[in-house]
Design a protein that fits this description.
Number of strands of chain A: 5
CATH superfamily of chain B: Cytochrome-c3 Hydrogenase, chain B
Strand content of chain A: 15-25%
CATH class of chain B: Mainly Alpha
CATH architecture of chain B: Orthogonal Bundle
Oligomer: heterodimer
Radius of gyration of chain B: 21 Å
CATH topology of chain B: Cytochrome-c3 Hydrogenase, chain B
Strand content of chain B: 15-25%
Order of helices and strands of chain B: EEEHHHHHHEEHHEEEHEEHHHHEEEHHHE
Number of helices of chain A: 5
Distance between the termini of chain B: 26 Å
Number of strands of chain B: 14
Shape of chain B: globular
Order of helices and strands of chain A: EHEHEEHEHH
Largest sheet of chain A: 5 strands, mixed
Structural class of chain A: alpha/beta
Strand order of the largest sheet of chain A: 2-1-3-5-4
Helix content of chain A: 25-40%
Largest sheet of chain B: 4 strands, mixed
Helix content of chain B: 40-55%
Distance between the termini of chain A: 21 Å
Largest interface: A-B, 34 and 44 residues
């Protein structure tokens, strides 16, 4: 997998936060951040939160998980310099219970595609693309999404999603392993 | 993705814009032209109904505050503020002045994040000639970075007071769930000082833009308060003399079902559409703007354009950014915590009705309550439901002026006009798509 966004930033620079008022952390032990989107109380919107919670204890110490609700550019700007990211979400436009794994590089040209049900004003590809440009370097990572069908407040997971949760957890674990491998290979001294 | 076809040389057309981008939610536009005249312009909202008015039945007003916040990830504070004020009005609760200030600060946070998002990531690409936020960021990175810092300042306010940046959890009938300390509030000050410079620079940036010309005289509606720029309270006023209490919204306005939309459309009871939001507020409440926002409006000289040209709504939003940041700074500087997080109260039967100014305009809610203060029936009227008819009317006026252009340009200009209203379709139920077709 070549998880590099094919977007030439206007200015290429070091992979650090570009704001002048921020204390930089040049050495980070976090290799991968898993960003769980959605919320626990709206049916299939809870799938990412549940799957990441099930996986958390089994992850290496250098993998960090965060609940982000709606994916925001700031969530991706907060990913440690040099680390990779996995965005986990429920999406529409995929059959319920089906799972897709797309490297960030594969999102180029799909700016209007893959809309999470909770309707971010920018699509996930746009959010990841803008964040990569602001970071000054393409962000390595993947989107792992499961197709959802029921999003009502107070509803449980739908049957197609509930029965696909084991596969969803495995897909996230596999994505973590792949992105972590890429990050490690880019940091030969670690 | 657009699927636009224009009859070559013909005057009978149908224009469909499917899946409008850079708006909140999912919808499309269907424009029908016969003999060169627009026969209909329909904003088709196909977001599934979300039944929130049924979900709150049987709940206490404290529960309602948290449930209605889930209607929208962009403007949850507006839903909470409207519900809490409705409850406190019905239960005759007088809250601590510090609570009043904190709620206003919370609302300022939401206005800042919502307006910064719309200006920099949704509307500015159109006006600077970029096809997407991605292209804008690629070519104008410092501009987008500034917008994101502004948005961050708004997020920080909501997170600090509300407990989290999205769907805050601290608002309670009678106050807040805890006393918010002075140091928690003053720690926002440095970011707000930077945000003030960024907001004023935003006004200068948008003042230099040249949006497409489209002028019309529409009915503008907003809250108006005697002492302040409207957010949490005021009376409903219009540019044609309307003046009524917020609880009386239903006496002058009504919602209707239309065949092409899952969202109800609101009109005046006389059938006329009306426009809410930043342009209406800046026009009807200019004298209540913070002095720094008022100076910014004077500096760009766009008050008349804001009142009559929808594409200049970005200027109204920028002026309100200055207002919200300046007001937030004033509140932070003067804040003294209340003795208690909330005041005690007792429920009672009655009607709880209120309206506040969400970033996109007036949001009305009414709840019928039983003796235990539980909801028996509810009505929630978001701003986009109210703006939908005005947007359709403006599209019908604007379209004939551009129908001689290439179809991609028609599509882009119509989408751009729709984006200028910052519709939140997920609130109204959730997006746009343009098609032009021959009519027999």
């Amino acid at each position: 997998m070549n998880a590099v966004l094919d977007i030439a930033p206007a200015v290429r620079g070091p992979d650090v936060d570009v704001r002048q008022d921020v204390v930089h952390h040049p050495v980070s032990t976090t290799l991968v951040e898993v960003l769980a989107c959605g919320g626990p109380d709206r049916g299939d919107d809870a799938a990412a939160v549940i799957a990441v919670a099930r996986l958390a204890d089994a992850l290496p110490e250098d993998v960090r998980t965060r609940l982000v609700g709606q994916l925001d550019i700031d969530d991706l700007l907060a990913v440690a310099p040099g680390a990779g990211a996995i965005v986990v979400d429920t999406a529409v436009g995929i059959d319920p219970g089906w799972i897709v794994e797309i490297p960030f590089s594969g999102l180029v040209g799909r700016e209007s595609g893959i809309r999470p049900r909770s309707s971010h004003a920018l699509s996930i590809p746009e959010t990841i693309g803008v964040a990569s440009i602001i970071r000054g370097r393409p962000l390595q990572g993947m989107v792992v999404a499961i197709g959802g069908v029921d999003f009502g407040l107070g509803e449980a997971l739908s049957w197609p999603v509930a029965t696909a949760m084991d596969a969803f957890v495995l897909a996230i674990a596999d994505a973590v392993s792949r992105v972590r491998g890429l990050v490690l290979s880019a940091k030969p001294n670690l | 993705m657009h699927d636009a076809v224009i009859a070559p040389g013909g005057e009978d057309l149908t224009v469909d814009v499917r899946n409008l981008t850079r708006v909140e939610g999912e919808g499309s536009l269907h424009l029908r032209v016969r003999g060169g005249a627009v026969e209909s312009a329909q904003l088709e909202i196909f977001e599934a109904p979300r039944y929130f008015e049924r979900l709150v039945v049987g709940r206490s007003m404290d529960e309602v505050i948290d449930i209605v916040a889930r209607i929208c990830g962009i403007c949850p504070v507006a839903y909470q503020m409207t519900a809490v004020h409705a409850a406190e009005s019905a239960f005759d609760i007088e809250v601590d002045p510090a609570t009043v200030a904190l709620r206003r600060l919370l609302y300022c946070g939401e206005w800042i994040e919502s307006h910064a998002l719309h200006i920099y990531l949704l509307h500015l690409p159109d006006l600077l000639g970029y096809p997407s936020a991605l292209d804008l960021a690629q070519h104008e990175r410092p501009t987008v970075e500034g917008g994101l810092r502004l948005k961050r300042a708004g997020n920080a306010i909501v997170a600090r007071i509300g407990g989290r940046a999205i769907h805050p959890v601290s608002v309670r009938v009678g106050g807040f769930s805890r006393v918010i300390r002075r140091d928690e509030i003053t720690s926002l000050r440095a970011d707000l000082a930077e945000a003030m410079d960024l907001a004023e620079a935003t006004v200068d940036l948008v003042g230099s833009l040249e949006p497409p010309a489209f002028r019309r005289d529409g009915r503008l509606v907003a809250l108006r308060a005697p002492d302040t720029y409207p957010m949490n309270h005021g009376r409903i006023v219009s540019n044609d003399g309307l003046d009524l209490a917020v609880s009386d919204w239903e006496s002058m306005f009504e919602e209707r079902q239309v065949a092409w939309s899952h969202a109800l459309q609101a009109h005046g009871r006389d059938g006329r559409p009306y426009l809410l939001g930043p342009s209406s507020r800046v026009t009807l409440d200019a004298d209540q703007l913070h002095p720094r926002a008022s100076a910014a409006l004077t500096r760009i000289g766009l008050a008349d354009a804001i009142a009559h040209e929808p594409n200049w709504s970005i200027a109204a939003r920028a002026v309100e950014l200055v207002h919200a940041v300046a007001q937030a700074i004033d509140i932070v500087d003067a804040y003294e915590p209340p003795a208690k997080g909330s005041v005690p109260w007792l429920p009672r039967a009655g009607t709880a009705a209120w309206a506040t100014e969400a970033p996109r305009g007036l949001l009305f809610q009414r709840f019928g309550l039983d003796a235990d203060g539980r909801v028996m029936e509810a009505r929630i009227v978001p701003p986009t439901s109210q703006n939908q008819a005005a947007i359709e009317a403006d599209l019908a006026l604007f379209a004939p002026t551009i129908l001689d252009r290439p179809h991609e340009e028609i599509t882009h200009l119509l989408e751009q006009l729709i984006r200028s209203y910052d519709p939140c379709i997920s609130c109204a139920t959730h997006f746009l798509d343009l098609k032009v077709e021959d009519l027999p």
